[in-house]
Design goal:
The complex is a heterodimer of chains A (306) and B (519).
Chain A (H helix, E strand, L loop, with lengths): L1 H28 L4 H6 L5 H10 L6 H12 L14 H36 L4 H15 L2 H15 L11 H31 L2 H8 L4 H31 L1 H6 L5 H10 L3 H29 L7
Helix pairs in contact in A: 1-13, 5-6, 5-8, 5-10, 5-13, 6-8, 7-8, 8-10, 9-10, 10-13, 12-13
Chain B lengths: L7 H17 L12 E5 L14 H10 L4 E3 L5 E3 L2 E6 L5 E6 L13 H12 L14 E8 L2 E6 L6 H4 L10 H7 L13 E7 L3 E6 L12 E6 L3 H9 L5 E3 L6 H6 L3 E4 L2 E10 L9 H10 L2 H8 L4 E3 L22 H10 L7 E7 L6 H14 L3 E7 L1 H8 L10 E6 L7 H8 L17 H12 L3 H18 L2 E8 L2 E4 L2 E2 L2 E2 L5 E2 L4 E2 L1
Classes of the chains: A mainly alpha (306), B alpha+beta (519).
């Protein structure tokens, strides 16, 4: 296991170099000049050229990449072109918010999605199965933006139970995490239902039942445990997706997270900030994948990494 | 803000209590001291450094930390601030500015001629990043005369210099702080204004507290929190829920509903920003004056303002906003007249088989794409084939600065918002040959030596009446030549709790809440 861990951690280095390389050159292929955006609409060409020089954008692209990499190996992500603040400070200020929202949303999604999927699979084509299926369909097809605004109107404006947006207390987390979870819960419920249906029809489940085990034990200890691997995969993937893909939720609920930071940085062509944020997303994604792989071994003893 | 649950009992009792309180509390019971004011805004500040800022909202925030030399009120009148007065030499090339005595920056540094000169030198230094330097490009140098007097020497006579020095761009910064923080001064704003920065939680909020050593009248608001709420609908919800006091730029589509709410006051003064469709004066089908005029007649600007912009703009009736000095309503208007448009196109021998290329940014101005789509439809209604392309702002703006030979611009949507209440920045900054790209942003490539002569004379003319007459002459000339489809002047919309009294809202999209009272 230790060797496996070391190997996996070492493999992140070429992955990150690959990300940085792709990102660096692809960003510079985008139309739009960061100096022009920074200078504003009324700036003269001389001023724009001045800013371009200050940002080092007038150097050859390979030279820019070499400078960037030389900073990166010293864990220096550079300074934001827009704010002139160190990129790492800007990311660090928002990372806890992103992690908090993602963890709460995923937890909520698992707490509701897995039991709903199990119940649905145990009673297929019953009214409860139809209810779960229809709810999942709603959850997946409802625009996050619309749902978020509806929750704001009901819980913040009409009932005045919860804050409409911002951070600062546990109440602030409720509406954005519920909004974010609504989509994921549907996914998890659907996945749990289909994998549970499959395992419930397999021979080992019939054997367990014929041994006289209670239905509860058959479902939880035998069927669910065997159905968990695809569910864990989906949860892991969704976790990674939510880290950077919660822009709309962050926008509606004024949640200062990394998704919004990335969106704003792309709009301003703030290269150092885009590169830094995506690199951090890459790292987090690799970490989540690693954790998922380790959980596989924990859930299914047949999986060994030695 | 505190959130409370609501029970059925409360639903009955609270309105009764409110009515009872309403009977007891007269409007006279306004709070002289407002402990905390929360303002919902859409974006976080990149920097609060006045000379590095191009966004009006951020300049607005910086204005509370950095006092300016002069203040231009919503009517355009100038008031002394850190400058107590100024004199202009007869040739208009030297401005002598008297500075206020006994003022200190918030870090305790004295404000004097040395500090003022250091600020000017910094802004005029080409190595300093000053995106809007063109606005003070006429200043050659700043000279210290004595401890409380400076002189600005100009490269050329520039009549609207006084409102120019009222701009945030050159608001004095503590020289000691500049030296101490260097580049990091962006995050440590230190000025002589009524507030100081207390806390900056990135992406969440900016908190300012009253500068207790402020030289001027003590602000009534002790603490101002700028809460970052990117979604306008959420800002409105927070205003209605009482979680913020001021909602910056609510959705135009919701203005009517907000106005109907007794708990909300909506202000929407006319702005200086004009929105137009540029028509390339030197290239393509729009080089013909009759075609440009026809395009102006083809578009129903009143309908656009009413149906697309929900009344948050006014159709243009002159080449600049009515809020600026030098504005004149034009005698002849391009009222919607598709028949006349067709007639003019016929007279111009317009080739209807050609497709006119239109482009628009998306999300830069109010309903920009929708306005462009409407114009496309109006052009098609008179038989003109028009193809519309949409771009994000960085891509769009890159295409605006190309020289004529490389420019692909034919018909394009853009906005122009002068920073001061004077027509010069609009009439000179968009229509003189000097500002044709790539030197400037007069992307319609309008170039008329006769017009340039009038505009140059207007800059040299110190008599306001004579200057106004010259600006009228220039306006008439460019209005007739029609290098733009003259669309509309935006309104600056701001909604706030109706308990607030004494808010100052300006046509340059700024508002000053620090002397408000709460009822």
């Amino acid at each position: 296991m230790h060797n496996y861990l070391i190997k996996r951690l070492l493999s992140t280095v070429p992955v990150l170099i690959g990300i940085s390389l792709l990102l660096f050159f692809m960003l510079r292929m985008l139309p739009g000049d960061p100096a022009q955006v920074l200078a504003g609409q009324m700036a003269t060409p001389q001023e724009i050229e001045n800013i371009r020089h200050q940002l080092g954008l007038d150097r050859p692209i390979y030279e820019q990449y070499a400078v960037y990499m030389s900073h990166l190996v010293r864990l220096d992500l550079g300074r934001s072109a827009r704010t002139q603040n160190p990129v790492i400070d800007e990311i660090w200020a928002r990372l806890p918010n992103t992690l908090l929202l993602t963890v709460v949303a995923i937890t909520l999604a698992c707490l509701f999605g897995i039991p709903a999927g199990i119940i649905s699979a145990v009673r297929p084509y019953s009214w409860i199965d139809y209810l779960v299926t229809i709810s999942a369909l709603f959850g997946m097809s409802m625009p996050v933006f619309w749902l978020g605004l509806m929750l704001v109107v009901v819980f913040a404006v009409i009932l005045q139970w919860l804050p409409a947006g911002g951070t600062g207390s546990w109440q602030h987390v409720i509406l954005p995490s519920v909004t974010l979870a609504s989509f994921v819960v549907a996914f998890i419920a659907r996945m749990t239902r289909s994998t549970m249906l499959e395992t419930l029809s397999q021979d080992f489940t019939t054997t367990a039942r014929s041994k006289g085990l209670t239905e509860k034990v058959v479902i939880v200890k035998h069927a669910l445990k065997n159905a968990l691997i695809p569910i864990i995969t989906v949860v892991g993937l969704q976790f990674g997706f939510l880290l950077g893909g919660a822009v709309l939720t962050e926008t509606v609920f004024a949640w200062p997270g990394l998704g919004r930071l990335l969106y704003d940085s792309i709009s301003a062509r703030d290269y150092p900030m885009i590169q830094g944020t995506i690199l951090i997303f890459g790292l987090l994604y690799i970490f989540v994948n690693l954790v998922v792989d380790l959980i596989y071994a924990f859930v299914d003893p047949r999986i060994r990494y030695d | 803000m505190k959130n409370t649950g609501v029970s059925v009992r409360n639903i009955i009792l609270i309105p009764m209590l409110i009515v009872a309180l309403g009977l007891c509390v007269s409007p006279k019971n306004a709070q002289a001291e407002v402990k905390e004011l929360i303002i919902g805004i859409g974006i976080d500040a990149d920097t609060l450094l006045p000379y590095d800022q191009t966004t009006t909202l951020m300049q607005n925030m910086a204005d509370l930390i950095y006092d300016s030399f002069l203040y231009q009120d919503p009517e355009g009148k100038l008031h002394p601030r850190l400058a107590t007065g100024y004199e202009v030499s007869p040739d208009g090339l030297t401005y002598t500015i008297n500075l206020r005595k006994g003022v200190k920056f918030s870090d305790g540094t004295d404000f004097n001629a040395d500090a003022a000169k250091a600020g000017w030198d910094n802004v005029l230094n080409p190595k300093t990043r000053v995106p809007l330097r063109f606005a003070v490009g006429m200043v050659k140098e700043c000279v210290k005369i004595d401890d409380y007097t400076i002189q600005l020497k100009l490269k050329f006579a520039f009549a609207p210099l006084a409102p120019t020095i009222a701009m945030s761009l050159i608001s004095p910064i503590s020289p000691a702080a500049l030296k101490k923080y260097g580049e990091d001064i962006r995050q440590h704003p230190t000025g002589a204004g009524p507030y100081v920065l207390d806390k900056w939680v990135k992406g969440d909020r900016i908190e300012m507290v009253r500068n207790e050593n402020y030289w001027g009248e003590k602000p009534t608001v002790a603490k101002i929190i700028w809460k970052i709420v990117p979604e306008a609908a959420t800002r409105e919800a927070m205003l209605r829920a009482g979680q913020i006091h001021i909602c910056y730029k609510p959705l135009p589509s919701n203005v009517a509903a907000l106005k109907a709410d007794a708990n909300v006051t909506v202000e929407m003064p006319l702005d200086t920003r004009t929105i137009f469709m540029g028509l390339n004066y030197q290239k393509g089908v729009t080089t013909n004056k009759k075609v440009r005029q026809a395009f102006n007649y083809a578009v129903d600007k009143k309908a656009i303002v009413k149906k697309i912009l929900f009344g948050t703009a006014e159709p243009m009736d002159g080449p600049v906003s009515p809020k600026v000095f030098g504005y004149h309503k034009m005698a002849h208007q391009y009222d919607y007249n598709p028949e006349k448009a067709k007639q003019l196109l016929k007279e111009a021998n317009f080739d209807f088989s050609k497709t006119v290329s239109m482009r628009t940014p998306q999300g830069r101005y109010l309903f920009d794409r929708q306005v462009s789509e409407a114009i496309q439809a109006y052009l098609q209604a008179i038989g003109v084939k028009a193809e519309l392309r949409t771009y994000d702002w960085p891509t769009y703006v890159a295409g605006l600065l190309k020289p004529l030979e490389e420019s692909e611009l034919e018909v394009f949507l853009l906005g122009w918002g002068p920073l001061i209440l004077d027509a010069d920045m609009g009439l000179y900054g968009q229509f003189t040959c000097e500002v044709n790209p790539p030197k400037g942003l007069g992307a319609a490539f309008y170039c008329n030596p006769e017009y340039d002569k009038i505009m140059k004379a207007s800059r040299e003319e110190q008599d306001p009446q004579k200057r106004s007459a010259l600006l009228k002459q220039a306006s008439e000339m460019v209005w007739d030549d029609a290098p733009w489809m003259w669309l509309h002047v935006e309104k600056f919309v701001i909604a706030y709790s109706s308990k607030i009294k004494g808010m100052v809202v300006t046509p340059t999209e700024k508002f000053y809440p620090h002397y408000i009272t709460m009822q």
